Amino acid sequence: MTREVRFLFDRRFDPGTGQARVSSEAPAAGETPDGGAAPESDPVATEPEPHFTQDDMDRACAEARAAGRSEGAATAVDATTRRTAETLNAIAEGVQNLVSGEHGAHRERTREASVLARAMVAKLFPELNRRHGFDEIVGMVEAVSSGLTDTRALTIRVSEGMAEPVRRHLAAKVRVRDFEGESRVVGDPGLADGDCRIDWRGGGAVRDSEQLRRSIDALCHEVLGSPAGAMTADRDDAHVTAEPAPPPVPSQSEPGRHHTAVTSVHKPPAGELP
After folding, report:
1. Mean pLDDT on 15-30
2. Is residue 42 part of a domain?
C-alpha cells in the first residue's frame, strides 16, 4: 500500500525559526516533525479471556438441570392444585344442586300428601260419621255413666233423628253400667247426626262432629303442612314454613261457649239441668 504522507511546507513560519527549511519527508514513526522522539503512548489495558474447564461446564449443566426440574415440578404442582380446586368446586356445586333439588321434591311431595290427606278427610268424614256416629254416642254415654256414681240424673242430647234409636239402645246399657240415676234422651234440632251432649249436675261432656273434623284437618295441617297456595318459602334457611291453621270455632248449638272437637267435660250453667 502507498504510504500516506502529510503535506508539509518547505519553510517554517513559526516566530524565531528564521524560516528554516523543512524536510519534505514525513517524520518516521516515533518521531515528531521537528526530529525529536515522540512520547511513548500507554498501552490499552485488556482483560484476560475467561477460561472454563470441563468440570465447570459439567457443574453448570447439572445446576441448570436441577433448576429446570425444580421449576417444572413447581409448575406441575400448581397445575394439579388448580385442577383439584376446580374439581372440588364442581363437586360442591353439584351436591348443592342435588340437595336443593331433593328439598324441592320433598316439599312438593309433602304438599301433595297434605292436599290428598285433607281432601280425604273432607270427603270421608261425613260418611264415616253417619255410619259410626251412633256407636260413638253409645260409647260416650257408657264411658260417662260408668264414672258417675253419685249422679242422680243424666240429660243426653242428640239430633232429633237419632233421639229414639239412642233412647231404646241406651235404656239397657245404662242399667248394665250400674247407673242408678235417671237418664233422659232429648232430641235437639241444633245438633247434627253424630253429635251428642251429656249434662249432669256439676259437669257435662260434648261430642261435636264438626269440631272433630276441624281438629283432624288441623292435625293434618300441622303434620304435613299447608295445601297448595298456602305455603311460604324462607329464602335464608331454604325451608318451607306452613301457615298456621285457623283455630276451631265454638259449637253453633251453644252460642258463646267453646267445646273441643273430641269428647270433653264441662260444667253447665246453673239451672240448666232439671
Report:
1. 55
2. no
